[in-house]
Amino acid sequence: MAETLNVAVASNFVAAMQRIKEAFEGNSEHEVRLIRGSSGKHYAQISNGAPFDIFLSADQLRPRRLVEEGLARESDLSTYAHGQLALWSRANDLQLDREYLLNTNNYDMIAIANPRLAPYGQAATEVFSSLGLKPLVSEKLVMGENIAQAFQFVFSGNADLGLVAYSQAMSPNLRGKGSVWLVPSELHEPIKQDMVILSDSTAAKEFAAFMKSDTVRDILLTSGYLLPTGIP
């Protein structure tokens, strides 16, 4: 029988997830309902009984906690993507790079996601620490609850720059617009994004299997993600 899946998805992954949803529904009788938000907020909702079938987090910590708390099974936990962090500006033709970021005279405000709630925000603070920028940017920070809000601050002009998900800068409606620098991975801990099944739904298991398909592999690579280890 056809089912409706409630899928909690991290803000950074929404654009890619829309494509995955369409591909899955095109080959299945099941329907996918997306609930977007920060990984930390989703974790709190699930802990408080929210009826989600699947959780696609922007980190590994929160899905792992759900397993440890008995709200999910170890066998239903997997890494679905590796995220990448980018420095992005709506302005065209900027030479964004390490030196541009280090020269804090280049910008008045820089947006990041809340590091307590969003893994990409945590990665952004690690970049500041790696570059010795933390004390220099403390008065320039504008913080979004999630990575989507952080990106919106830059897009709307309320921040000059943002440390955002590379996937956001790679979205079809923005590709080729603005300026982007893919932050070197050695400046922050890997952004490994895990998925966990939260219900015994047959459709949830079918969706989890679909996440390992060639179709999803191609969507990940064209959306600014790296493939998880173990997928060629």
Please indicate the count of domains. Answer: 2
Query: Would you identify the CATH H-level superfamily of the largest domain?
Result: Periplasmic binding protein-like II
**Strand fraction band?**
15-25%
Backbone structural class: alpha/beta
Look at the structure and give the mean pLDDT.
94
Q: Radius of gyration, rounded?
A: 18 Å
The helix content, as a percent range, equals 25-40%
Q: Under CATH, the topology of the largest domain is which?
A: D-Maltodextrin-Binding Protein, domain 2
Number of helices: 10
* SSE pattern: EHEHEHEEHEHHEHEHEEHH
Shape: globular
Major sheet: arrangement of strands: 2-1-3-10-4
Major sheet details: 5 strands, mixed
Quaternary state reads single chain
**Distance N terminus to C terminus?**
33 Å
- Which CATH architecture of the largest domain is right? 3-Layer(aba) Sandwich
CATH class membership of the largest domain: Alpha Beta
Instruction: State the low-pLDDT regions, or none.
Output: none
Give me the count of strands.
10
